[in-house]
Amino acid sequence: MMRSVVWSNNCLTLLNQTLLPTKLEYIECYDWRRAAEAIRRLEVRGAPAIGAAAAFALVLGARELTGLATNEFKHKLLATAEALRQTRPTAVNLFWAIDRMLNVITRLPESTDSATAIAALEQEAIVIAKEDQAVNEQMATYGASLFTTPTSVLTHCNAGALATVALGTALGVIRKAWSQGNITGVFADETRPLLQGARLTAWELMQDGIPVTLITDNMAGWVMKNQMVHAVIVGADRIALNGDVANKIGTYSVAILAKEHGIPFYVAAPVSTFDFTISSGSDIPIEERCASEVTSLGGNCVAPAGVKVFNPAFDVTSHTMISAIITEYGILRAPYQESISQLSKMRK
Ligand code: MRU
């Protein structure tokens, strides 16, 4: 299976997701600034993949500080961490990974030299990446238990191996359920404006031989109406304490359609995607991206020059529309206030 985030010999290699599926090109980052740029440009994207990339970017940043005295090392590392935090606002995995990395430094004795600190940071980033794969495997097992008969599912955006370190969240569940004979096919919403569904999900599933049918976003209602879809499964970028879920723009519309048609709507997300500090989805910062993403398609202009554009990259789906949230600790059900509070006590 392809890898979107690879660390080896002090180089962070990222699969350039903006070029898929037409070009398979990798970006080699030796400088944290290039990695930060890759996150901002969506060359690496998807909540868990962003978190892992930021962790390795912080290792690259720390390596620049080799030989500095403890105080200066910490001061400059915090500045790098702050710059990385500014790259994208919605996916909480970014902040979770950076905090986890900084905690490593906090735990080291005051007298620790920079070489030891850098080695400890590198070790933590490697653990973050490894854990993501293990967590996705566990989620896949739990999630697949929801599919006990042959089911046609619909997914939005890309919550696959490309969006994580390996396997994927929603697509991890689909992969597992498929291997158990319980997926008949997947409808992939194209996911305007940046087409993660068409470019990435369709490509990923085809690589695995899982039958995928591409639709434009405005076709989802019609396929549901015609009973061509039995369940929806998506990933998440941030989940609040009450179970409200921020995910790629358009997820909210799919959830409403699923509710109207009596179709279960599942979210698959690791604990690192939960924000235990916010009570509801209204506290989630929603990224707004540049107008050109909406006014152009595949590099071609599709709107009059100068038209006013609104381009929120995410929306929030109310917990009331979510049938279950699949995590590596098990399947959460309503009332989410309670199940998420339990989850916060269980996590390591
Ligand atoms: O803007 P993107 O492509 O980073 O948005 C990604 C999504 O919304 C995914 O569905 C989400 O991160 C879940 S990924 C496992």
How many helices does DSSP assign?
11
Distance linking N and C termini: 28 Å
**CATH architecture heading of the largest domain:** 3-Layer(aba) Sandwich
Helical content, roughly? 40-55%
What share of residues are in beta strands?
15-25%
Ligand roster: 5-S-methyl-1-O-phosphono-5-thio-D-ribulose
Shape: globular
Our count of domains comes out at: 2
State the CATH superfamily name of the largest domain: Translation initiation factor eif-2b, domain 2
For this structure, the CATH topology of the largest domain is: Rossmann fold
Low-pLDDT stretches: none
CATH class of the largest domain: Alpha Beta
* Count of strand segments: 15
- Which structural class is indicated by helix and strand composition? alpha/beta
Please characterize this protein's 3D structure.
This protein is α/β, with parallel strands linked by helices and 348 residues long. Helices cover 41% and strands 17% of the residues. It has helices at 32-40, 47-63, 70-85, 92-107, 114-144, 170-179, 196-207, 220-225, 251-260, 292-295, 336-346, and strands at residues 5-8, 11-15, 26-29, 151-155, 183-189, 212-215, 231-234, 238-239, 245-248, 265-268, 296-297, 300-301, 314-317, 324-327, 330-332. Strands 6-5-4-7-10-14-15 form a seven-stranded mixed sheet. A three-stranded antiparallel sheet has the order 1-2-3, with helices on one face. A three-stranded antiparallel sheet has the order 8-9-13, with helices on one face. Helix 2 packs antiparallel against helix 3, helix 2 runs antiparallel to helix 5 (114-144) and helix 3 runs antiparallel to helix 4 (92-107). The longest helix has 31 residues, at 114-144. The protein is globular, with a radius of gyration of 20 Å. 5-S-methyl-1-O-phosphono-5-thio-D-ribulose is lined by residues 42, 45-48, 91, 157, 159, 163-164, 169, 196, 235-237, 247-248, 313.
